[in-house]
From TrEMBL:
Protein's name in the database: FAD-binding domain-containing protein
Domain of life: Eukaryota
SUPFAM superfamilies, per database record: FAD-binding/transporter-associated domain-like
Residues annotated as domain FAD-binding PCMH-type: 21-192
Keyword Cell membrane: no
Family: Belongs to the oxygen-dependent FAD-linked oxidoreductase family.
InterPro entries: FAD-bd_PCMH, FAD-bd_PCMH-like_sf, FAD-bd_PCMH_sub2, FAD-linked_Oxidoreductase, Oxid_FAD_bind_N
Keywords: FAD, Flavoprotein, Oxidoreductase
Position of the signal peptide: none
Cofactor(s) demanded: FAD
Molecular function GO terms recorded: FAD binding; oxidoreductase activity
Amino acid sequence: MRSMTNSTQFEEMTIRYSRTSVPDISAFISVGTPEDVGVIIRYANSHSREILAGNRRHAWSRTLARTRNAIMIDISTLKNITVDTEANTVTVGGGVSVGDVMPALQAVGKETTTGTCNCVGFLGASLGGGHGRLQGRHGLMADNILSVRLTTATGEVITVSDTSHPDLFWALRGAGHNFGIITEATYKIYDAANGGMQYTTNKVYDTVHMTEMFEAMNNFKVPADYSALLNVLMDTNSSTPRMVLNFVSSEPEATAKAQFASVFGHIPYISAIEAVLPWASVNGRGLTGTGDFACGNRARKRIAGVATTRYNTTAILEVFEKYKKFAARPGAGAARMIFESYSVKGVQKVDPDSTAYPWRAETGVVLMNAGYTDDARADEAEDWLFEAMAIMHASSGFPRPALYMNYASGTEGFGAMYGYDEWRQEKLKKLKKEWDPHCVFSWFNPIPIDCQR
Ligand SMILES: Cc1cc2nc3c(=O)[nH]c(=O)nc-3n(C[C@H](O)[C@H](O)[C@H](O)COP(=O)(O)OP(=O)(O)OC[C@H]3O[C@@H](n4cnc5c(N)ncnc54)[C@H](O)[C@@H]3O)c2cc1C
């Protein structure tokens, strides 16, 4: 266990993906073993100190800024990965990232659903649901969890699975950041499709084709082996907004190309890059506009997501007009919008009541990122984001605001993140009162209860 409180590395160790939703951390303790997590929790409880688990520090919700004088329990050191090719499972430490897990599986001819960016924490994503390119075949990341080792709010270590604390297991898969710190988790894995190779292309389009593009995105009822991620971003060379479509398939190249041509082939593009890559390289070699390019840590960012059942082109064009004005301002060129069309075939095979993840009807995952490097843009970033959120939620196809909780700005509210069904809300609150009545784990998009602080 290493305490970094007075270290010159402290800022480096605590710096976040978004520097606008920053928790108040006064001590940073990197764990040496899973057992250290319980020791720190018990110490914090007995000294009335707040704690926050930190892995890749990518979460951006504004609720994080409610912490005061907190101890960050850095679990990024828990990096173990054990693959069992017979049982078809992978057991990972709580501090692995997407980029750690994919090569370990590829090396033995296996795969599972992961996030689309290597930099993201594997558990951080999974606990909210976890979207990724293989969800069409294997469901969400959370759908593949078989069991976890959880250190609870009292520092006790328990196993949680379908047979051990099954209600808590339900809650961990969609609202999982609220109940403790996972030091280890076991996931289902599968034989890699297409020998572990994927066809990937990025095509750059003029935004004059935006209407056709969103019609095509809507018409593309994404088959299980496909994903299409559309980035709207500024071309830094020409200061012109562009669309970059990242299309990935684990079908053979010729089939994938024919699929692309049938859906998007009629839209003229400016430039294209294409390759057939090992699955584990697709995120990191995201060509332009996606993948590791999105992982940069330094710009200020105001970010929010919206779940949609269909892209509403009129609404998107309205948001785009406002985007252009904001992104053209000095120091605002990092702003972007991402429209993630993952296949929902595997997601919708899972009984919607069997996990706390509430939005299995969602077909489009929208992310609006008001990134800026000049502090003078802060208010404008806020204005663009909130206008965009209002327009996008109103046209999302959901009757009330809905979004993937890991993409929340932190202002949307309980129902928008965890579902409006009364039974879901009651169940989550009951479990929160049972497992964390003092709200030890309530800094990231919390389940609202009357905390016994
Ligand atoms: C560039 C980028 C790309 C992304 N891509 C995807 C994607 O493809 N798919 C997707 O689903 N999401 C994606 N996300 C969202 C991502 O899932 C969330 O931001 C997630 O919370 C990040 O986890 P982290 O470990 O990286 O960050 P952290 O800020 O370290 O952790 C996030 C929260 O989870 C808690 N936490 C982390 N690990 C554990 C654990 N082991 N046990 C208990 N609590 C824990 C922390 O306390 C914190 O509150 C992306 C985000 C970014 C910034």
